[in-house]
Amino acid sequence: MSEDYVFQPPHRPSLPVRGTPQRFPIHRVYCIGRNYAAHAVEMGHDPDREPPFFFQKSADNVLVDANFPYPDCSVDVHYEFEMIVALGKGGRDVPVERALDLVFGYGVGLDMTRRDLQAEAKKLGRPWDVGKAFEHSAPCSELVPVALTGHPSRGEIVFRVNGELRQRGDLDQMIWKTAEQISILSRFFELQPGDLIMTGTPAGVGPIQRGDIMEGAVEGVCGLKLKVV
User: Fold this and answer.
1) Does the keyword Metal-binding apply (predicted)?
2) Helices (H), the chain
3) CB atoms within 10 A of CB 37
4) Which residue from 9, 39, 43, 148 has the highest number of Cβ atoms inside 10 Å of its Cβ?
5) pTM higher than 0.90 for the full model?
């Protein structure tokens, strides 16, 4: 054990990269809220292009496994399926026209949410952390480098539970596009290589139960399949 630390530092979370044995080390996980108009409506909000807002999950919340453990302290856990942007470069105050230069690749993932705890926090005006940033709350796929995907601006988003269609949308329905999200985030944070951005979910979010099979894909990017255990 190194003498530089009082205990052994934890292993750094990472994601597999298609076509290479190397892995993508994760720095931070940013999530944008209500970035599809229909989802904003189903959550009881105005779908107009209001200023975007973001929250974070921990890198340790990322799950790379075929099983999603149903979390404690909740009886109402929801899926939110979305495209993920992985940054290979960092920066501050990045102009929109240069924002995509920071992107390493794309993937898909789930912003799993303890909806009952989030709703309670909203009602009390408190942060969402216990509802959003719990263990295993960010299941993610492999990452696909830009060289293989380009920069997707449109593509069907489909998510099923036990084979039943639950979410369907298209990347072109994002209120704030990928480059805009990167640029805006860079005003408030110094973006770093290894940052992930979860770009928002279409309408159709809902609860899952133990034993359910969750499966989704973004056209031109990749897919993800998990069992709730």
Assistant:
1) yes
2) 37-42, 96-99, 115-124, 129-132, 146-149, 178-188
3) 19
4) 39
5) yes
